[in-house]
Amino acid sequence: MKAQNDPSQQTDPQQSDPAQKTASTADSGSQARRIAILVDSIADLPPELLEKHRIQMVPIHIRFGSREFLDKQTLDNRTFYRMLREEKDFPKTSQPSPAEFTKLYSKLLEDHDAVLSLHISGKLSGTVQSAKTAARSLDENRIHVVDTLSGGMAQGIIAVRAAEALEAGAGLEETLNLVSELSRNRKIYLLFESLDYIVKGGRLNAKVGRILTKLRLMPLVTYTDEGALGRAGIIRTGNKAFNTLISRMRKDLKDRQITDIAIIHANAPEKAAEFRVLVQDSFNPGRIFISEIGPGLGAYAGPGTLAFAYFTK
Known about the structure:
Layout: H1 2-5, H2 18-34, E1 35-40, H3 47-52, E2 55-58, E3 61-64, E4 67-70, H4 77-86, E5 92-94, H5 98-111, E6 114-119, H6 127-137, E7 143-147, H7 152-167, H8 172-184, E8 186-191, H9 196-200, H10 206-214, E9 217-223, E10 229-236, H11 241-253, E11 258-265, H12 269-283, E12 287-292, H13 295-301, E13 306-312
Parallel strand pairs: 1-2, 1-6, 6-7, 11-12
Antiparallel strand pairs: 3-4, 3-5, 8-9, 8-13, 9-10, 11-13
Helix pairs in contact: 2-7, 5-6, 7-8
């Protein structure tokens, strides 16, 4: 506040003109309106964030036997987790088709100069390839498809940060650079409640799963720098598991500060609330987002999973 009152820090009178300020604000807002942001539903962004930042979403497909659903459109999280517990068929997921992307891109380009299409890691899904195929069929100069090397709310936060940059007046190139930087500088961890679902999904050997369960051990899963799933260690289940996670974060952070962290749960809001308190008390991060893991990741992670993703400065 003192700097604003110091004559040496005052701006040019023309820059202080209210009319110019209004024009600048309008410019910032129009920048965001000229560039559409699209994510796939794996990003698990809560509806209020999608609406606040005008972020568009393309759903992935979920199939239980012969029945097919669209994530967050014809299948909500509550129904999905009930079906996951009750249905005999294990759910299968598939990416949106190039035709679905083409239809959505065409509609967005009617009202926008460009589309920034931010998607789950290409190591885990064919979504990026579907998006690129559609972009090539339309206009690659106006459709910018980005592999965020992430998934879940890590991908979601990248989209929110991109939207905020555009809202603040950043241009397309600057926003693309920000997205690239965020995609390279994130930490993501997943801790399962049970190994049953990743075994059923074919991501863990059944024998290994039985041994780990018997020993009350759980693999701590992470996203590698290349966007693949990797093992970050083994955690003993029980009351001290969260403390182990906090210790792991301290080791990762060193002297850096968390700017944004997402705590994502699979039908386990009480776990997310408990972990949020620990994170707040331990690190005092800039922002904490809470979200629920949807069908795209929930089919393999299973109920009770806790995941978290954070960005630093």
